[in-house]
Amino acid sequence: MLYLDHAATSPVRPEVLDAMRPYLTGVFGNPSSHHTAGEAAASALDDARKRVAQVLGMRAGDVVFTAGGTEANNLAVKGIVLAALSAGRRHLVVSPIEHESILESADYLRRFHGVEVTMLPVDSAGRILPAHVADTIREDTALVSVGHANNEIGTIQDAAALVEAAHASGVPLHLDAVQSAGWLPLRDIGADAVSIAGHKLGAPKGIGALAVRGRIPLEPLLHGGGQERGRRSGTENVAGAVALATALELTEADREAASAAVGAATARFIAGVLRGVPQAALTGDPEHRLPGTASFTFAGTSGESVLLELERRGVISSSGSACAAGSDEPSHMLLACGIAPEVAQTSVRFTFGRHPLAGDDPERLAALVADSVQAVSG
């Protein structure tokens, strides 16, 4: 099987498994316990926090370990906005192509706390203009939250320019970097909060982090023992934190080389699909896109049928976000880009890992896609 669904999840890297193993066995203490076993665990947790902060360009005390990217996004959006309500800031700015964890958090704040939510316009490629951020900000705006790179179409935002536009009005910006971490530089963007998830990087599922600058008030969503400096109660996942730090460092170390190699292979694959499938249309920005993401619509077909044909040929891909699995509705991201619902339902997404084709070549893969589309079209 050729696995091309890395935007959904990636396998655990052997180096990451080796790094976390001691904290699943011998060093198993609770890091809040005041004895030798607990102190050893606490030391590992502190070290992991420093390592994550270093890659993100934050301070160690800014990093809050979470159970994954969804919790990190919920904590960023809800936590920052709820903390700002007492100051009369009841306005949130997001875009319609955000991950469900952002959009559902925004809807929760609207329904239960009277927060007004403004949707930023996006163009047909899913790009957000900094001028539109500036235009939507008001005196009572509490937060702007945008995704660095879209998990479905791969479009990359000019995050530094969006941050600058928000900061010009004194408004913090949260950057959902779940898809971009490991592929794009994060240190110098200047975002006030950054979300990442371990299982996109080669760490296990169930660990993530929100790095939020200390000057930004944050209302906790989980209450209890006051772990994570009171921002996220619950016994910390020490092995997961070590795994996340290790995976993040490994991907950062070869980020430029991997991005170049995977980007080149993906470009050849895209060209092959567009050449071999007459009804294929690339979604997202053709230039500003994640190196390993190629998402197409195949008008006149069923995206799910194409997926089944591809799997019969040994290729595993997806019809979009794994977080929307089981839904019969067309992708909200594609609809926001102006794609008609009946066309959006034909979409198929291919997302490569750091070793893009596992010995295969892009042109052969494109030919398999063409054969699959032809099989369901005829």
Written description of the protein model:
By secondary structure, the protein is an alpha/beta fold. The chain is built from twelve helices and twelve strands. The protein has a seven-stranded mixed beta sheet with strand order 2-8-7-6-5-3-4, with helices on both faces. A three-stranded antiparallel beta sheet has the order 9-10-12. Strands 1-11 form a two-stranded parallel sheet. The longest helix has 22 residues, at about 255-275. About 50% of the residues are buried. The model has no long low-confidence stretch (mean pLDDT about 95).
Strand content: 5-15%
> How helical, in percent, are the residues?
25-40%
What is the chains' assembly state? single chain
| Secondary structural class | alpha/beta
Query: Span between N and C termini?
Result: 25 Å
Task: Count all strands and give the number.
Answer: 12
Instruction: Summarize the helix and strand pattern as letters.
Output: EHHEHEHEHEHEEEHHEEHEHHEH
Main sheet: which strands, in order across? 2-8-7-6-5-3-4
Main pleated-sheet profile: 7 strands, mixed
Mean pLDDT: 95
Note the total helix count.
12
Q: Compute the gyration radius: what is it?
A: 21 Å
Q: What would you call the shape?
A: globular
Uncertain runs: none
